[in-house]
Amino acid sequence: MAGTDAHRAIEAVWRIEAARLIAGLAGMVRDVGLAEELAQDALVAALEQWPESGVPRNPGAWLMTVAKRRAVDLLRRRETYRRKLAEVGRELAREPDADPAAAAAEEIAEEIEDDLLRLVFTACHPALAREARVAMALRVLGGLTTGEIARAFLVPEPTVAQRIVRAKRTLAERRIPFEVPRGAELAGRLAAVLEVIYLIFNEGYSATAGDDWMRPALCEDALRLGRVLAGLMPEEPEVHGLVALMEIQQSRAAARVGPDGEPILLLEQNRSRWDRLLIGRGLAALARAEEHGGARGPYTLQAAIAACHARALAPEETDWERIATLYGELAELMPTPVVELNRAVALSMARGPAAGLELVDRIAGEPSLKGYHLLPSVRGDLLARLGRRAEARTEFERAASLTRNERERALLLARAADCG
Asked: Is residue 181 part of a domain?
């Protein structure tokens, strides 16, 4: 097998298998940092051997077997792990001469789901700072390198490396158990996990800074994590709600960017370019979230709002009254100025710009919105629709001064110029 082809194959396998591999190893050694090191050792072994021998029939099992053998070597040197050594040794002694993939595949299939779920909750533990959770999730669950994470969030690579090191140290020093919480603790911990996944998706969907309007790779990583979590926790409606929201939002990706990378706003998008397969998957996930009954959570409500847009084949077919009502429900769960700002947009579409502007002006003084560029952006749009063009221009210029995304700044300045 050609070296270049082998390296491409290894990279693809690593993206798919990294989280499962680290999860299985962390379940053995009870240390996420050590598990990642063992997984990296297995990756090095693949880089050395696969270009000559070819990619194994079950590459994930091959990597797991190699990593487990490295774990055995490590545990052998640690007297305090004698009992664990015996367990792992018995596991590998069942068929010592067999094909590693065949020997490990069945057991990996049985154990991996529990271990992966534990890893998700450990990497997103609320004891970690939000930035550290995101970095850890992308590193151990998304399989991204430190450099890739740094480029995605426009921060220096050493900063990301420090966040990951501190996160691992925190997990070790606090002796945070490698487990899925139970009872009342589960709800709080699950909320942290879902928040991290959605933060990653949002940064890909609308980049906060830089030259690109979107970063599709981050959206894909978040979607993959969400789908995995939904498979591991099929009885949790909010997990399906988050997946539904991301699937439907991602369905618009091709229509959100023009040929030169410029942003295209929702009402101006060519809806024939929306991905109907992703919309179908999102609506199915939303149905799964809602079939559990009871009050809808924030992700399920946002998915229901996204579904209203997805079902409208043309902008004028959008059920804005329903969207405004759903935002009202969301505001009861999440009484934040940002939710109210979105509700104002829906009200303006359902009942006219004056209704929306009234609500915007009521929340304009909120301290949390002081540097939020979408407040003057929305206000500018409403003023323009009311014919108050000079005021609208001022608002668009203010919004442009607040955003850190170059594409968005150009769009806002263009809208300001249109008002001139």
From this structure: no
